[in-house]
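Query structure, 176 tokens:
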């Protein structure tokens, strides 16, 4: 059994509690003191633990259960190694981000190409088909009204001074 110090958040308030973390055989044991209720003990089953990938270098952040999550932060460079030794088959060791970064350039390139492919599929195939289906359901008279209304909004009636326009045209013709 390994023992570490950390900060425990119970998911009910934003207050963190200084905690003693013990890596037991089948669970993580968290001892902390809540000023309102006194000494507390939490036991986390490894199957219900989620590891967050966004933490500082030596900080390991674990979340437990369902929303609102309980959270444990341990700032110790040996904690992650101890977790892997104590619970080698736990799901929280596997991360999609780690798998992506381990795959190197090929994995990142594949992900980018897949994203471009999905966006292209939507833009060039799905969107036109959806627009066609909608257009097929709109009666022609309503379509004409929408077009005329849009044209009137975009092309504002202009006040053209015809006499000055003729003078300006002749001026530009003389220049060149």
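Result returned for the query:
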């Amino acid at each position: 059994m390994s023992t570490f110090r950390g900060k425990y958040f119970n998911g009910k308030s934003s207050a963190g509690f200084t905690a003693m973390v013990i890596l037991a055989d089948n669970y993580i044991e968290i001892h902390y003191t809540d000023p309102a209720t006194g000494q507390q003990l939490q036991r986390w089953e490894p199957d219900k633990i989620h590891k967050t990938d966004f933490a500082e270098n030596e900080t390991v952040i674990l979340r437990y259960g369902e929303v609102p999550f309980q959270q444990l932060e341990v700032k110790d460079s040996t904690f992650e190694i101890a977790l892997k030794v104590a619970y080698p088959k736990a799901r929280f060791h596997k991360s999609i981000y780690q798998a992506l970064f381990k795959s190197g350039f090929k994995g990142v390139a594949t992900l980018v190409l897949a994203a471009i492919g999905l966006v292209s599929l939507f833009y060039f195939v799905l969107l036109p088909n959806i627009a066609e289906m909608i257009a097929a359901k709109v009666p022609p008279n309503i379509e004409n009204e929408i077009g005329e209304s849009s044209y009137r909004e975009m092309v504002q009636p202009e006040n053209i001074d015809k006499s000055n326009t003729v003078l300006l045209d002749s001026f530009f013709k003389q220049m060149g």
